[in-house]
Amino acid sequence: MSMSTSTTHQTAYAADQTLQHIKNKGTLVVATSPDYPPYEFLADTKGKERIVGMDIKVMEKICKDLGVKLKWKSMSYDSLLVAIQTGKADVAIGGINPTAKRRQSVDFSDIYYSGGQAFLINKTDKAKFTSQKQLTNKKIGAQTGTLQYELAKNKIKGSTVKGMDKNTDLVLALKTHKIDALGIEKPSAEAYVKNDPDLAMIPSSYHLNKNEIGAAIAFKKGSTTLETAVNKSIAQIKSKNLTEGYLADAGKYMKVNTNDTSMPHYWKYFAKGIEYTLIISAVSVVLGVALGTLLALMRFAKSKFLHAIAIAYIEFVRGTPLMVQVMFVYFGIGIIVNLPALLSGIIAVSLNSGAYVAEIIRGGINSVSKGQTEASASLGLTKTDTMRYVVLPQALKNIWPALGNEFISLIKESSIVSIIGVTDLIYQLNIVRADTYRGVMPVFVAMMIYFVITFILTRILNFYERKMKHAK
């Protein structure tokens, strides 16, 4: 290192206050995706659900050395680095490989564990696939955005790489023969093989850059002081070989999780998911109807300005995916205002629903005969009173079925909030799949729960629709 480079580094180190900021607030916020045993996963201990695994022990050691409390923030794996960049978390951990591409966006600590790479295959294919060589021209699965995805894409000739957000989905794809093999970290592969008799593991023969092999902790760019302090703890972890003990401890929890993989045993997980799904849906329905009504009235307003705002909003929301809207509210607006994941999910779903409800209400208002408004005017009613007492009540009868469909769709579409770590039904479903190594049954249970919820809601909506039809 030249003298000028060293001086620049020291200046950056002196200017960076990341570590001091962490110590001042007394907490280190860590983003993770707890569906990746043995690195991080959820375990039911003494009736309480908590995140456990090797990475959790690593962070506990680091926080103890820093003298701060550890605070976890759960979200999908592909949102971890975004959480760092937008300030939702101080650091991210989750078996993250510090690839050169990722280093362009975030900084990384020293590697704290190198487990190696492997492939999961079906046990019935064990004679067919004995090494990576036999995977040429085959279908390879890998988690989207991971090192395993890039390796399979670039280093296995003729392969077709199928990416998915969750390893649990990839394992299901493997077991149903949608893919021939799954590229995965060796410790996770070993965990699956140990707990699923239908799977086997074969080694990889990748020749990798040593700086990209293994797991590291991610930081926001320029977090020099925090990174240096964390690396001191990592040096101790490596010198004392503490990760072996951390893995052994994770194995104990994995054994507890797989002692009883029946769905009734995980009823608390599903119950919590139902609770959050209903909360999000109920609040979003109320806010969505209120916003939709306002937007619909704005479209009928004489003011061209209000009319233009309503149209622009409706077209923009209807023209962009809900998932993107959820991520924008949580991460984008979160740069200015640090909104909790649940509140961000409710806001995003409500704003989305409002645009669709507005069009439903507009259609209902247009369906009311013009003669009704003319009759109201002849009776001396103002336009506001005509809309309130004559048009809207009649429009409600016409739009009730469409409005009911929107309510039902909202319950199902609210599942998208799981990507930002809201513990709704889909989020809990993926946790159960990761913990039990069962791919299909948790999906079936969640599907039936959604059916029951929507079936009950449909019957309630039909009851009120019949009452409206018979009302004089």
UniProtKB/TrEMBL annotation:
PROSITE patterns: ABC_TM1 (PS50928). SUPFAM superfamilies: MetI-like, Periplasmic binding protein-like II. GO terms for biological process: amino acid transport. The chain crosses the membrane at residues 276-297, 328-349, 443-464. Keywords: Amino-acid transport, Cell membrane, Membrane, Transmembrane, Transmembrane helix, Transport. The keyword Transmembrane helix applies. GO terms for cellular component: ATP-binding cassette (ABC) transporter complex. Pfam families: BPD_transp_1 (PF00528), SBP_bac_3 (PF00497). InterPro entries: AA_ABC_transptr_permease_3TM, ArtM/GltK/GlnP/TcyL/YhdX-like, MetI-like, MetI-like_sf, Solute-binding_3/MltF_N. Its main location: membrane. It is a multi-pass membrane protein. It is found in: Cell membrane. SMART domains: PBPb (SM00062). One of its GO terms (molecular function) is transmembrane transporter activity. Residues 274-461 form the ABC transmembrane type-1 domain. Belongs to the binding-protein-dependent transport system permease family. HisMQ subfamily. This is Glutamine ABC superfamily ATP binding cassette transporter, substrate binding and permease protein.
